[in-house]
Amino acid sequence: MNTQRVDVKLVLLGREYSGKTSLVERFVFDRFSCTPYQSTIGNAFVAKRMEAKGKNLTLGIWDTAGSERYEAMTRIYYRGAQAAVVCFDLTENTSFQRAKFWVNELLNCEEHCRVYLCATKADLVGDKMARKVDLHDMHDYAEEMKAQLFETSSKTGQNVHELFQKIADDCAEKLVFTDQTPRGVNITKDAKREMARCCVK
């Protein structure tokens, strides 16, 4: 059981096959698999140490399931999140529409959570016919939600590090360390508490 403490809780949300797991794999392990990943069940967790604004911090990344049948479980994991990356596939407009659903769900639960919109699979839209999400629609929605927007490619690495560094920099400004041991979140305790709360509803 993972008892690692993190300074920043970050969740990845979005429809299944929107590229969430590939994004994490590229950022944390600097790798990309050409073999399609199986759909995430529940969530996958990984921690990454980073330097941001002169501070060392641990970014705890929850890669959540995108399938609709896991929606109730996903809500457990984004509670208490300081930041969220909401992913959508540039080659599927339905993925973009689903991203809007997740933004609303998130902000209804965590209204102060920072939202970052991540348009994935940018390497596939060199051919304009392959792009199914209108550029102006993306930017208009990002402006409406006051969210940062990044076009990324986990295959080439385009804007992947920049996305996570921006998140770390933004969150670092709000962090206060009282000693050499960073204050953080005990992910095991939080998961137990949220699971218990879910079960008694």
TrEMBL record:
Catalytically driven reaction(s): GTP + H2O = GDP + phosphate + H(+)
Membrane topology field: Lipid-anchor
Cell compartment(s), UniProt: Cytoplasm, Cytoskeleton, Spindle; Cytoplasm, Cytosol; Cytoplasm, Perinuclear region; Cytoplasmic vesicle, Autophagosome membrane
Keyword Transport: yes
GO CC list: autophagosome membrane; cytoplasmic vesicle; cytosol; perinuclear region of cytoplasm; spindle
Cofactor dependence: Mg(2+)
Record GO terms (molecular function): G protein activity; GTP binding; metal ion binding
The enzyme's E.C. designation: 3.6.5.2
SMART domains (UniProt xref): RAB, RAS, RHO
Pfam families in alphabetical order: Ras (PF00071)
Keyword annotations from UniProtKB, A to Z: Autophagy, Cytoplasm, Cytoplasmic vesicle, Cytoskeleton, GTP-binding, Hydrolase, Lipoprotein, Magnesium, Membrane, Metal-binding, Nucleotide-binding, Phosphoprotein, Prenylation, Protein transport, Transport
GO biological process terms, semicolon-separated: autophagy; protein transport
Keyword Lipoprotein among UniProt keywords: yes
Assembly behavior: Interacts with ZFYVE20. Does not interact with the GDP dissociation inhibitors ARHGDIA and ARHGDIB.
General function of this protein: The small GTPases Rab are key regulators of intracellular membrane trafficking, from the formation of transport vesicles to their fusion with membranes. Rabs cycle between an inactive GDP-bound form and an active GTP-bound form that is able to recruit to membranes different sets of downstream effectors directly responsible for vesicle formation, movement, tethering and fusion. RAB24 is an atypical RAB protein that presents low GTPase activity and thereby exists predominantly in the GTP-bound active state. RAB24 is required for the clearance of late autophagic vacuoles under basal conditions.
UniProt similarity note: Belongs to the small GTPase superfamily. Rab family.
NCBIfam families from the UniProt entry: small_GTP
Protein's name in the database: Ras-related protein Rab-24
Protein source organism: Eptatretus burgeri (Inshore hagfish)
Lineage summary: Eukaryota, Metazoa, Chordata, Craniata, Vertebrata
